[in-house]
Specification:
It is a single chain. By secondary structure, the chain is α+β, with helices and mostly antiparallel strands. It has 7 domains: 174 residues, no CATH class; 46 residues, no CATH class; 149 residues; 241 residues, no CATH class; 138 residues, Immunoglobulin-like (Sandwich), CATH 2.60.40; 44 residues; 108 residues, no CATH class. The chain is built from 22 helices and 44 strands. The strands form 12 sheets. Strands 24, 26, 27, 28, 32, 33, 34, 36, 40, 42, 43 and 44 form a 12-stranded mixed β-sheet that branches. A 6-stranded mixed β-sheet has the order 25-35-41-37-39-38, with helices on both faces. Strand 43 and strand 44 form a beta hairpin. Helix 17 runs antiparallel to helix 18 and helix 19 packs parallel to helix 21. The protein is globular. The relative contact order is 0.07. Keywords: Membrane, Transmembrane, Transmembrane helix. This is L-lysine epsilon oxidase C-terminal domain-containing protein. It comes from uncultured bacterium 'pool 3 contig00022'. InterPro entries: LodA_C (IPR041173).
Length: 1032
């Protein structure tokens, strides 16, 4: 293009008299067959048009090639008068230049040696021997031959101003008169990636490929696949795209790297208190806190990390893992504190040698003593220690990652998590049926009895010494401590309770007015980070209580109390009291003082209390109220206890794993059987994913940045538009990466099938995130809202950003046939924030394998109560789709256990008998019997009979609205009940006319027959009688 400009505008520049095949013809021919490897429109064509073939073409073939070119003079004909062709078929009106057309014409129609020289020495053609590559002409050629020379709209390196307007002092050298800095590129898009993204297809396929062939084989794929599906994607991810390089006889895509080699340090337990460490040290040295830190090595091959096995010994793991050093802010060491690797998690545990995957190293924090919490004998109340992870990757260099932890030594109340932070040792739960005795106390069968029971238990607990305390007798085992969602079991009311133990060490001062707030997350949850404006709301008064936790206007947490609940139809939640859970903890010198707090977890009760979308957020409310049971979204829930002490506030974003004022019981249990069917080997549980607030960039911004000038724009217009684009470019703020789910398979068999259903999420968006952020995205699309997680030690799932509402999800695992009784599998689900990189919540799905005979009754109860809850979920609610699939899977399990799920009705008691059906049946019989009585009484001939019959008939009519107010009454049900009542009455009247006096029998029977005839006709028309019409 620039040589053509020189021929047109620089005097003395002419086309060489003889064309060189290697210099003038071969570069054009080469592009023809190479385009087939980068362009969808060229792919499949020119299959036999390759280097060797092009060099040995006969004249007939050469002319055929030339005749396919479009004549740049626009005449539509070849120099010989024939019609010209349509090549090249690039965007716009791209044609070869007149100089190029001349060279190609000589090659096709000229005489070899006179018009063109066949100096082809083989493939690839070297420079002719008389050319010195260090000379200016060759340096110019080397710099320009990789640039685009057409479709300058505006182009990649420069625009049409260079081609059409600017003056040249000599070939390839601009006349600088009148030109200023930036004039060559002032028409370019800002940022350049915007135009580069938009001009795919046939604009510049050599420089901006459309379709490519990856190295390693396979068919053609999109060059920007998964990485850059929009202009904004291109701005952020362009550097991940591959290069097209020559391998053997073909051009293939190489060096495509979705992620750069990086280390990331993720903290799970980021806070440690002296009290907590000392308590664990009392049980043995060192104090071990497992799964406290993760170091994620992204984009490495096994060899680069020296990883030689997927199942390393501890000694091997020490070699493979990045080394973590722990130092204070002044760079002094923390000698008692060590980060020790104890697990390696692989996305693909077959460990392919060339696969760049994500290696997740898991560390435990160990303390040999608590000396680093003091300085000179006095407590270090708060200190930040830095964690530095370092890993040498050979020739790739040394990589580092950073994080920090807080060490505290303050006389504040706290709770211990124990070895697994989602199963706190200081928060215990239990259930008790009515009439049974525990802790020396017998519970009654009412809500008032449940409140009195927990208050009496706490009173007794707080009067006892720590040694041999009955609190320690409450099981912390996840299977033994499960709660009951059904209101009753085998006709007995069941009540659930929680008790928290709060510890305090103080020499002189007491901890006054310590409170514990108990909150139920409506199902297992991955986002437990502390926020007083959402999940952890409380009243703003001197004696605060927990309020409903709200996210996007929906209930996500429900407070539970030791005091009786207020009437939410009359009072706002702000007047709720919980004096049961306010306590002053006295000092005990160096010893721990324990205080016990608790609540009635009335999650299985049926009293209507809260609307689904509380407005106002704290009530009172009088309409659309649901029971707590109807607001629950899974068989097992997450409970978080917050120790609230005014001088020791909880920092926003803290989680139960990182703060000893928060403790949780966050587990889900789903049993499987052996032997069993596919349905009974499939386990599932709902869970709620925390919304990721960060907003992704939008395509609207990308569009505003693509500043493409038009032919009519003058220079000033172009400059103004470019300046505006620069201003817009500086307004871009790169967001943090998406939050992620980290699913640890742990001991789950690798031939299990795991799916994740999120009806409120577009799976294609998740896969796009995965394609942009994971070198090995171990996810597959099942349907628009379901992902399949491919097996491995760990699966990462990126979460969509820019949401204010949490995500309802269903985790389903199909176990293989080889599972055995007494096995227990325990996959865990964690949510990692995009920035900072911390774990904000986790839960465990416990899967015990048991004999099917022990599971059937519980599964029936589960189906019944879940159907009852599902009935209260609106059709447009995000949980509707989850529950439809969840209940459907439980239905299949019930059938697999040998019961008929179709006869199991919704019930809050889980007994398979719908209370509405029971109420409706009683009222239906009352209505029919009143009609029967009215018909019979009308059969007697007396004034009394007329009045009594009329009153009875009015009572039957009045019973209909009462019936309809208590249950759903279809027109067919009403019609059948009416026919039954009148028919039975008529039969009795007919019988009386035979055996005794019934003077009005003929009249009554005639009227009854007419009415029954009309009703039967309606019944047939309404399709109420299956024997006559089976339509429903």
């Amino acid at each position: 293009m620039l040589f053509q400009a020189a021929v047109d505008r620089v005097p003395g520049t002419v086309v060489p008299a003889v064309s060189s095949y290697t210099r003038d013809i071969w570069p054009l021919v080469e592009r023809v067959f190479e385009h087939a490897r980068v362009s969808a429109s060229a792919d499949g064509f020119h299959a036999d048009f390759h280097a060797a073939g092009a060099a040995s073409m006969n004249q007939t073939r050469r002319r055929a090639v030339f005749d396919r070119l479009t004549n740049p003079d626009g005449s539509g004909t070849t120099p010989d008068g024939g019609p010209d062709g349509n090549m090249p078929t690039l965007a716009g009106t791209v044609r070869v230049t007149p100089v190029q057309y001349t060279h190609m014409h000589r090659w096709a129609y000229g005489t070899e040696g006179a018009d063109w020289t066949d100096d082809w020495p083989g493939a690839p053609p070297p420079l002719p021997p008389d050319i010195d590559p260090t000379q200016p002409e060759e340096l110019t050629r080397a710099a320009l031959q990789v640039c685009v020379g057409a479709a300058m709209f505006p182009g990649i390196e420069a625009s049409w101003l260079l081609r059409d307007d600017y003056a040249f002092a000599e070939p390839f050298r601009l006349d600088t008169a009148g030109l200023g800095a930036g004039d060559i590129t002032k028409q370019m898009a800002v940022p350049w990636q915007a135009d580069f993204s938009a001009c795919s297809g046939s604009w510049w396929p050599a420089a901006r490929p459309g379709r490519v062939y990856p190295e390693g084989g396979g068919g053609s794929v999109g060059w920007t696949r998964d990485i850059a599906e929009s202009g904004l994607d291109m701005v952020e991810h362009w550097y991940k795209l591959g290069f097209i390089t020559e391998q053997g006889p073909s051009l293939v895509e190489t060096e495509r790297q979705v992620v750069c080699r990086t280390l990331n340090l993720v903290t799970d337990r980021s806070h440690f208190s002296q009290d907590e460490v000392a308590a664990v040290l009392a049980t043995g040295t060192p104090a071990v806190f497992k799964d406290s830190v993760y170091v994620i090595a992204e984009g490495f091959t096994p060899a680069e990390l020296s990883v030689t096995t997927a199942t390393p010994t501890q000694a091997q793991l020490e070699v493979f893992s990045p080394a973590i050093t722990i130092r204070r802010a002044d760079d002094t060491p923390v000698p008692s504190m060590t980060a020790r690797p104890h697990a390696l998690l692989l996305q693909d545990d077959s460990l392919p040698a060339t696969l760049r995957q994500r290696f997740t190293f898991v560390y435990q924090i160990e303390f040999t003593n608590a000396n680093d919490f003091v300085d000179g004998g006095g407590p270090l109340e708060s200190q930040v220690v830095n964690l530095n992870a370092t890993k040498s990757a050979g020739a790739a260099g040394t990589f580092v990652a950073f994080g920090f932890m807080h060490l505290t030594n303050q006389p504040n109340p706290y709770m211990l998590d124990g070895p697994t932070h989602w199963l706190s040792t200081d928060v215990r739960v239990f259930q008790i049926p009515e009439g049974e005795t525990r802790f020396g106390l017998t519970i009654g069968g009412t809500g008032a009895a449940a409140t009195s029971f927990i208050q009496d238990v706490l009173s007794d607990f707080n009067a006892l010494d720590s040694a041999g305390h009955p609190f320690d007798a409450i099981s912390s085992d996840q299977q033994d401590s499960r709660l009951e969602l059904s209101r009753s079991v085998n006709g007995q009311r069941v009540f659930n309770f929680a008790i928290a133990r709060v510890r305090y060490i103080g020499n002189l001062l007491s901890a006054d007015n310590v409170r514990v707030f108990f909150r139920l997350f409506t199902t297992a949850a991955t986002g437990l980070n502390f926020s007083e404006t959402t999940s952890y709301r409380r009243s703003d008064v001197d004696g605060p209580v927990a309020l409903l936790g709200l996210q996007g206007g929906r209930i996500v947490t429900i407070p539970c109390y030791g005091d009786a609940r207020i009437d939410t139809t009359a009072d706002a939640l702000g007047v709720q009291t919980d004096t049961t859970n306010v306590r002053t903890l006295a000092p005990a010198g160096p010893n721990e003082r324990h205080g016990y707090f608790g609540c009635w977890l009335d999650l299985n009760q049926t009293t209507a209390r809260f609307p689904l979308d509380p407005t106002p957020p704290d009530g009172p409310w009088t309409t659309n109220l649901l029971s707590i049971q109807e607001l629950i979204r899974g068989m097992h829930q997450c409970l978080v206890a917050e120790a609230h002490f005014q001088p020791d506030p909880i920092a926003p974003g803290a989680s139960p794993a990182s703060n000893d004022n928060l403790s949780q019981r966050n587990l889900a249990i789903s049993e499987s059987d052996n032997p069993g069917s596919a349905a009974t080997h499939t386990v599932q549980h709902t869970f709620e994913i925390k919304a990721s607030y960060r907003s992704p960039r939008t395509d609207a911004i990308a569009f505003s940045l693509r500043q493409v000038a038009t032919v009519s724009d003058d220079v000033n217009t172009v400059r103004e538009r470019s300046n505006a684009a620069l201003v817009a470019q500086h307004q871009i703020r790169l967001p943090a990466g998406p939050d992620e789910l980290m699913i640890r398979w742990n001991n789950l068999p690798r031939d299990s099938e795991m799916t994740l259903y999120m009806p409120d999420v577009d799976v294609d968006e998740v896969l796009r995130y995965a394609g942009q952020n994971y070198q090995v995205p171990r996810l597959e699309r099942v349907d628009p809202h379901t992902l399949k997680c491919l097996p491995g030690d760990v699966t990462y799932v990126p979460l969509p950003m820019g949401r204010t509402r949490n995500i309802a999800a269903l985790l389903t695992i199909a176990l293989p046939d080889g599972v055995r009784q007494k096995q227990v599998f325990s996959p865990t689900v964690h949510q990692l924030s995009g920035r900072p990189r911390v774990v904000i919540g986790a839960f465990e799905l416990t899967i015990p394998i048991a004999n099917r005979a022990a599971l059937g009754a519980a599964e029936v109860r589960k189906l019944s109560v879940l159907r009852h809850i599902a009935r209260a979920i609106p059709s447009d609610d995000q949980w509707r789709g989850v529950f439809d699939r969840y209940v459907g899977q439980i239905r299949d399990r019930v059938r697999g256990f040998g019961d008929d799920p179709d006869v199991i009705e919704p019930s809050p008691d889980g007994d398979g008998v719908d209370p509405e059906t029971r109420r409706g049946t009683r009222l239906q019989w009352l209505y029919s019997l009143l009609l029967t009585a009215a018909v019979i009484v009308f059969g007697f001939d007396s004034t009394f009979a007329t009045v009594a019959g009329g009153l009875t008939l009015l009572a039957a009519v009045a019973a209909v609205p009462v019936w309809r107010s208590r249950t759903h009454v279809s027109r067919c049900l009403w019609l059948i009940a009416t026919i039954a009542g009148i028919g039975l009455g008529a039969a009795v009247v007919a019988l009386l006319s035979i055996v005794g006096p019934a003077p009005r029998a003929p009249t009554v029977l005639t009227i009854a027959a007419l009415v029954l005839g009309m009703l039967l006709t309606l019944g047939v028309r309404w399709r109420c009688f299956r024997p006559f019409n089976t339509a429903t």
